[in-house]
Design brief:
Layout (H helix, E strand, L loop, with lengths): L2 E6 L2 E7 L4 E5 L6 E2 L10 E6 L2 E6 L6 E3 L2 E3 L1 E3 L5 E4 L2 E6 L22 E5 L8 E3 L4 E6 L3 E8 L2 E8 L5 E2 L2 E2 L5 E2 L5 E4 L2 E7 L1
Parallel strand pairs: 3-4
Antiparallel strand pairs: 1-2, 1-11, 3-5, 5-6, 6-9, 7-8, 7-10, 10-11, 12-13, 12-21, 14-15, 15-16, 16-19, 17-18, 17-20, 20-21
InterPro entries: Cell_Proc_Reg/RNA_Proc, FHA_dom, SMAD_FHA_dom_sf
Protein name: FHA domain-containing protein
């Protein structure tokens, strides 16, 4: 699983494994990772990990969240990204080991959801189907609008992972947090409508 190395004033304070799907960082003790410094907001940021991918999200902090010198709202983390939270420097390290989902013993075989596909509903590609045969399938164009569909033990989920344009799921804005997909759900990427089909 991925981990973060937390440094303050050039001194490595601790290493934290990202063992949960979503871990919050902030000054308040209710956070998963507590940074006790007055420049850190009560709830400053969160890291969400889905399979092999981790996303950093600023939780409307006062002093902002920075990655590699750039202020971010939401960011897809890459190996050795340098995160800055107030006075803290945090290095993201990806080691290729996935976090365990839930408390299921390793010996158990994970259930496999029924096969699914995305069907284009309008435009010149109407009627075309894209089988969701991989663990992750991306839709859209990098830098403009990307939706990632992830297959989990429980089914399929969609999240907006890249680009300024907001995609929609059943008419509602799709955010960075993965949203479960049900048969018949409609994704809208810049006017192109696609239905999720399962079974």
């Amino acid at each position: 699983m991925a981990k973060i190395l937390i440094t303050l004033d050039g001194v490595l304070e601790r290493t934290v494994q990202l063992t949960k799907e979503r871990m919050t960082i902030g000054r308040h003790r209710a956070n998963d990772i507590v940074l006790e410094h007055p420049t850190v907001s009560g709830e400053h940021a969160a890291i969400t990990t889905i399979l092999d991918d981790s996303f950093l999200e600023d939780l409307y902090s006062t002093n902002g969240t920075f990655v590699n010198g750039h202020r971010v709202g939401k960011h897809f983390l890459q190996h050795q990204d340098a995160i800055k939270l107030a006075k803290y420097r945090i290095e993201f390290v990806k080691d290729g080991i996935r976090p365990l989902s839930g408390a299921a013993p390793l010996a158990e075989t994970a259930p496999v959801p029924p096969p699914a596909a995305i069907e284009v509903l309008n435009g010149s590609n109407a009627g075309k189907r894209l089988e969701l045969s991989k663990l992750q399938t991306s839709l859209g164009r990098t830098g403009v609008q990307v939706v990632m569909i992830t297959r989990t033990d429980h089914g399929y989920a969609a999240a907006h992972t890249d680009g300024e344009r907001i995609p929609f799921l059943n008419g509602m804005a799709l955010g960075k947090q993965p949203q479960p997909l049900a048969h018949g759900d409609v994704l809208d990427l810049s006017g192109t409508q696609m239905a999720f089909r399962q079974g």
